[in-house]
Design brief:
Layout: H1 21-38, H2 43-49, H3 51-60, E1 72-76, H4 82-89, E2 93-98, H5 101-113, E3 120-122, H6 135-138, E4 142-144, E5 158-162, H7 165-168, E6 175-181, H8 190-200, E7 201-211, H9 230-240, E8 243-253, E9 267-275, H10 283-289, E10 303-304
Parallel strand pairs: 1-2, 1-6, 2-5, 6-7
Antiparallel strand pairs: 3-4, 5-10, 7-9, 8-9
Length: 307
Amino acid sequence: MFENIEYGEREDPRKVRPTSTFDMDKLKSTIKQFVRDWSEVGQGERDTSYKPIIQEIQRLFPDEQYDVSKVSVLVPGAGLGRLAWEIARLGYTCQGNEWSLFMLFSSNFVLNRCEKVNALTLYPWIHQFSNNKKSSDQTRPIRFPDVNPQSLPINSDFSMVAGDFVEVYVDSDSWDCVATCFFIDTAHNVIEYVETIWKILKPGGVWINLGPLLYHFENMANELSVELSYEDIKSAMVKFGFHIEVEKESMQTTYTENDRSMLRYVYDCVFFVARKPADLYNVEDEQQSGSPPAAKSPRRESTYSLT
């Protein structure tokens, strides 16, 4: 799907290497993402995680004042694509970006192959052997998808791009809004994310973020990891030039929670809206041309189609 290789053109991938514990953990996590993003059971999590972001987008870019189809929204770390799908359903031009092949294969399946509501069944908690009150809790089924992913308006502009966020998005002044949810702590160096978002936002564009700082590469062997506090990240954002317009340092939500487990985690998340000033552009370009540089289109080389 991503390498443009037909079946049979390379060795059977099952013979390449045995399945690792790391891969199995990723698989289990991805299965739980179906619950969070595409089941009725995950509605509560979506309300606490996605809804504040969507409400801010609608507040900042209301359809009474904007042709929302021309408002471009990027969702890095899109996972199985529900947040990006919901934004596109409202009429905005929206693109999700994801690096994990587990998530990409699964989002492609949901978005392009699922048409009937609650037609498929998963057993997402079958691998959880601890903290079960009832045996039936471990084996209970979850139905998905709770909506028809094919039900987007026919004129919707919605896409998903496979690749590393920092490497894929390199064109300046390309997006009206970047929406990040449980994403910035996936960075090896979170300042790279801040720098990239600053670069790709159009002057006057906004960055909306909700999430914790559970750094994914902390204490992982042979992996660079810079773990900054939110205070330090905020300081870096201000030095880049961001204006913090909305800030809430305590918004509680869960993440792929098993609501019947005897052990449940609650994240006390930070939520903010930061704006790249509208009057900011390259002075050198202005001196040479007499006008600010034109916005460029985002790269789409690695996009898979949504049919």
